[in-house]
DNA sequence: CCGCTTTTGTGCACGCTTTCACAAAGGCAT
DNA sequence: ATGCCTTTGTGAAAGCGTGCACAAAAGCGG
């Protein structure tokens, strides 16, 4: 029953903690905004506020990159922008392919933030033959058959999966086989990949469910009135006579379309 | 310089760790799939594999919900689906509004996974008057002017922001003022909200940047050849003579459109 | 009715993250 | 120059999350 393919063991590459890496883009965005307003320097306090984090955390994060600040003054905005960009690998160009040009895939293709950060949409790929050649966001959609060729010719190492869940693993396998080593997955599935391949997941449904949890919690504690009667246990665990949903509204398997997608 | 509005202090509501809550939707999805195949029971090992986590972790997670398993046998699928659904608050209906019907907003509106999980798109809202009345995913878009009325009349407590970054905070404020207490933010901005309001963020750009970091790391260590010369320091920190990007390709401020959006 | 097998539930230890608190360091005014 | 004020950089401590390893249960066969 072993997965056969392992999951990244939270490597913490080269001393920079994963948690810090995840915040660097946040800092970078705040710094870029300051840079555009020609602000020369920022204190950790100001920048932390702009990024929505604690100032101590920010200073510690930056300390992993080196001592780029000046005591009594703060951080040089331009310099820090450069350093973080370099650390994140944004000083080079990353060709990216998007697989699955449905509603979401198209939206992703149109995303303006791609180019401005060193990412370049090298190709759009879809399995539907009727899509082939059709331009989306100015880029003609190519057929899945050419996936391997596209990856290799463009030296793509980052792939975005926006296909239905059913196709995701298969697409993933092909991407990996062709040389992709980083995947951003919008399909509501757990992808299994060989060691050395990074997968990050974006899932609207999961985010909403987490919000619902907290929402329910809020509603059930503060007011102490209005419904939310958690009583009435559904059925016995060993017996199999439990109705899944209160009503029968169960429109389809769900988990068959990526985070955002109609068909 | 104080933000004035606080961020959620990782409350860990009522004993269930935040990390566990974040995994419950994952388990639920795997369980739903099993349920559809009429599988009566699962062991923690099997379910963990399906959800892509460690079995010990899964068991510990479930232990926070109660003892719903049977030793020597495993977990009753239907029963567990019900329990997790209830815990996440999915046994009730959550009306949701989507603000900002651009490329991404439209994709979200078309998302099929909404209804199947207890979420219902109550309304689509956009600031563009020319959008008003136009049906998207079968729902007519309404104007921002009516935001408050819509929220109140439908008892909406969860809002999705898919506007450009510039409008996000303003929309957020109005949502909160109207009674929304949970927000899913797709705009690349840090939202500040009063205490008691939950915000979750989805940001394509950040995910890609994190991938790029690891990608660069991989490329710079394993092969030990091919470029990746980290030498050539850019400039002095105190002096302000650093060019931000290697080339001048800086198309726009970025951070002005939500995660996915053309205009 | 007993013992064997399976699988859960969890005590415990380890490592990562966050936060505090403060000494070191830089700049500026006098 | 000297001293004061500001802000960084970082030990150290506390808090979480993860995973191991195993005892406690439940079922089953003899």
Automatic annotation (TrEMBL), chains A, B:
<dbReference type="InterPro" id="IPR003781">
    <property type="entry name" value="CoA-bd"/>
</dbReference>
<keyword id="KW-0678">Repressor</keyword>
<comment type="similarity">
    <text>Belongs to the transcriptional regulatory Rex family.</text>
</comment>
<keyword id="KW-0520">NAD</keyword>
<dbReference type="Pfam" id="PF02629">
    <property type="entry name" value="CoA_binding"/>
</dbReference>
<dbReference type="InterPro" id="IPR036291">
    <property type="entry name" value="NAD(P)-bd_dom_sf"/>
</dbReference>
<dbReference type="InterPro" id="IPR009718">
    <property type="entry name" value="Rex_DNA-bd_C_dom"/>
</dbReference>
<keyword id="KW-0963">Cytoplasm</keyword>
<feature type="binding site">
    <location>
        <begin position="100"/>
        <end position="105"/>
    </location>
    <ligand>
        <name>NAD(+)</name>
    </ligand>
</feature>
<keyword id="KW-0238">DNA-binding</keyword>
<feature type="region of interest" description="Disordered">
    <location>
        <begin position="218"/>
        <end position="263"/>
    </location>
</feature>
<feature type="DNA-binding region" description="H-T-H motif">
    <location>
        <begin position="26"/>
        <end position="65"/>
    </location>
</feature>
<dbReference type="InterPro" id="IPR036388">
    <property type="entry name" value="WH-like_DNA-bd_sf"/>
</dbReference>
<feature type="domain" description="CoA-binding">
    <location>
        <begin position="89"/>
        <end position="190"/>
    </location>
</feature>
<protein>
    <recommendedName>
        <fullName>Redox-sensing transcriptional repressor Rex</fullName>
    </recommendedName>
</protein>
<keyword id="KW-0805">Transcription regulation</keyword>
<dbReference type="InterPro" id="IPR022876">
    <property type="entry name" value="Tscrpt_rep_Rex"/>
</dbReference>
<comment type="subunit">
    <text>Homodimer.</text>
</comment>
<keyword id="KW-0804">Transcription</keyword>
<dbReference type="InterPro" id="IPR036390">
    <property type="entry name" value="WH_DNA-bd_sf"/>
</dbReference>
<comment type="function">
    <text>Modulates transcription in response to changes in cellular NADH/NAD(+) redox state.</text>
</comment>
<dbReference type="Pfam" id="PF06971">
    <property type="entry name" value="Put_DNA-bind_N"/>
</dbReference>
<dbReference type="InterPro" id="IPR058236">
    <property type="entry name" value="Rex_actinobacterial-type"/>
</dbReference>
């Amino acid at each position: 029953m072993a997965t056969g393919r392992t999951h990244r063991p939270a490597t913490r590459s080269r001393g920079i903690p994963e948690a810090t890496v995840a915040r660097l883009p946040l800092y970078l965005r705040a710094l870029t905004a300051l840079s555009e307003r020609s602000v020369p320097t920022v204190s950790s306090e100001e920048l932390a506020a702009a990024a929505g984090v604690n100032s101590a955390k920010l200073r510690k994060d930056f300390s992993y990159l080196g001592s780029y600040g000046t005591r009594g003054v703060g951080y040089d905005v331009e310099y820090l922008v450069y350093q973080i960009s370099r650390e994140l690998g944004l000083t080079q160009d990353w060709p990216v392919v998007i697989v699955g040009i449905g509603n979401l895939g198209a939206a992703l293709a149109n995303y303006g933030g791609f180019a401005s950060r060193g990412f370049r949409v090298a190709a759009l790929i879809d399995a539907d033959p009727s899509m082939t050649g059709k331009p989306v966001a100015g880029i003609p959609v190519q057929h899945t058959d050419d996936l391997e060729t596209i990856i290799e010719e463009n030296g793509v190492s980052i792939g975005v999966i926006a296909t239905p869940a059913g196709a995701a693993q298969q697409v993933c396998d092909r991407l990996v086989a062709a040389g992709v080593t980083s995947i951003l997955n919008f399909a509501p599935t757990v992808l299994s990949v060989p060691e050395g391949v990074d997968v990050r997941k974006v899932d609207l449904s999961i985010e909403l469910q987490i919000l619902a949890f907290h929402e329910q919690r809020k509603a059930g504690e503060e007011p102490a009135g209005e419904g939310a009667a958690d009583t009435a246990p559904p059925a016995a665990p060993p017996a199999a006579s439990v109705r899944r949903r209160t009503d029968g509204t169960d429109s389809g398997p769900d988990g068959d379309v990526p985070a955002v997608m109609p068909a």
